[in-house]
């Protein structure tokens, strides 16, 4: 994979981590502005976000999980950058499978719970990760 696509995916991972930090902020009253904005943007139910101890726990946990997800992909991508040939192709295909499972499950739940706009943002995020995988030629062993 070219240095350009490697940097692109590294920036993508940093974006995931930063988004996770924003979500984590919802765990605290002093830092829940990002979550309030984000959920109001996605909310088609017209129900305001109600912060209670359970919601704050869920927000903090999903933020921590998202941070971990971004860091895990960063490690995975860096390891995959070092691979060549069949090993690289297999690894990148597994990355696609893992991300596809996430986006299908998350999008289904988003639509079912009235947050269809989240499915749109998930899909854009997913496509932005797939672009370098397909454009770089790593699936063809290049």
Features:
mainly alpha, 142 residues, elongated
Which helices and strands occur, and which strands form pairs?
Elements: H1 3-24, H2 33-42, H3 53-81, H4 85-112, H5 116-135
Helix pairs in contact: 1-3, 1-5, 4-5
Please characterize this protein's 3D structure.
The chain is mainly alpha-helical and about 140 residues long. The chain has one domain. The chain has helices spanning about 5-25, 35-40, 55-80, 85-110, 115-135. Helix 1 packs antiparallel against helix 3 and helix 4 runs antiparallel to helix 5 (about 115-135).
Question: What is the end-to-end distance?
Answer: 7 Å
Total strand count, please? Answer: 0
Helix segment tally: 5
The SSE order reads: HHHHH
Q: What is the global morphology?
A: elongated
Instruction: Tell me the domain tally.
Output: 1
**Gyration radius, rounded:** 17 Å
Average predicted local confidence, pLDDT = 90
What percent strand? under 5%
Helical amount: over 70%
Structural class: mainly alpha
Low-pLDDT windows of residues: none
Largest sheet data: none
Can you give me a brief rundown of this structure?
Helix content is 77%, strand content 0%. It has 142 residues and is mainly alpha-helical.
């Amino acid at each position: 994979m070219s240095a350009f696509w490697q940097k692109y995916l590294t920036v993508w991972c940093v974006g995931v981590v930063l988004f996770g930090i924003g979500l984590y902020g919802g765990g605290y009253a002093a830092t829940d502005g990002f979550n309030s904005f984000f959920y109001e943007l996605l909310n088609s139910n017209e129900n305001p976000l109600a912060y209670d101890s359970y919601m704050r726990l869920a927000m903090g946990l999903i933020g921590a999980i998202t941070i971990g997800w971004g860091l895990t992909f960063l490690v995975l991508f860096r390891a995959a950058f070092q691979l060549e040939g069949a090993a690289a192709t297999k690894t990148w295909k597994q990355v696609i499978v893992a991300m596809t499972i996430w986006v299908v499950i998350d999008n289904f739940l988003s639509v079912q719970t009235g947050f269809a706009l989240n499915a749109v943002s998930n899909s854009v995020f997913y496509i932005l990760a797939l672009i370098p995988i397909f454009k770089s030629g790593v699936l063809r062993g290049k």
